[in-house]
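Protein folds are increasingly written down as discrete tokens. With that in mind, we are printing a sequence and the tokens encoding its fold.
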Amino acid sequence: MKTIFIMVKCELGKAYDVAAEAVESVENVSEVYSISGKYDLMMKCYLNDDQDTGHFVNEQIQTLPGIKDTFTMITFKAFN
């Protein structure tokens, strides 16, 4: 299992709609946070090791209504 974080810029007034849709309809989305700064949302997603990150972001996230832009961060190791 691998973890990725996706920063999402939404159309004006659509952040809450995008967050709700992501949590409800995209199985791999674990959590969605509203954030300050250049992006509106940060999504934490868990993918299977053999799942292609690019295809997931392009097909499952960027196609959600209300999304204008994304920035994906791939993780390497979690520290406890």
